[in-house]
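wait is this the right file?? whatever heres the structure
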């Protein structure tokens, strides 16, 4: 198309092996769903008629958890990707300890021990 996909290359090169990423970027050839799954570009393959149902089930599962935990965990996940392992562990430890001391984690732990659904405050 007269251009190199440099922006997609940032994400693709962090998910798939370098040689596979370069092949995809140089050729622009679409890949089948199974190959995308094997390359780590997607999490699962589902029949088209099940897609909406499966997406909604995943969305319900994610949204059923603690919003505070997601709000602190997701940015920390992305930050630690850019760090060397010792710094990443230090960040992860701090975030996890902050979460453990927060009310949401206490509710989650109590609910698990009491075998009941958690009552999230956020």
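ok assuming it is, sequence goes like this
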């Amino acid at each position: 198309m007269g251009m190199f996909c440099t922006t997609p290359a940032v994400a693709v090169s962090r998910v798939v092996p370098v040689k596979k990423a370069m092949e995809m970027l140089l050729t622009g050839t679409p890949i089948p769903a199974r190959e995308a799954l094997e390359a780590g570009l997607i999490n699962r393959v589902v029949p088209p008629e099940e897609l909406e149902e499966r997406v909604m089930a995943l969305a319900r599962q994610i949204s059923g958890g603690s919003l505070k935990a997601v709000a602190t965990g997701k940015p920390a996940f992305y930050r630690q990707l850019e760090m060397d392992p010792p710094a990443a562990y230090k960040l992860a430890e701090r975030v996890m300890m902050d979460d453990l001391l927060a009310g949401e984690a206490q509710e989650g732990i109590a609910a698990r021990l009491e075998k009941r659904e958690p009552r999230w405050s956020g």
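The two ends are 47 Å apart (CA to CA). so i think its the right one actually
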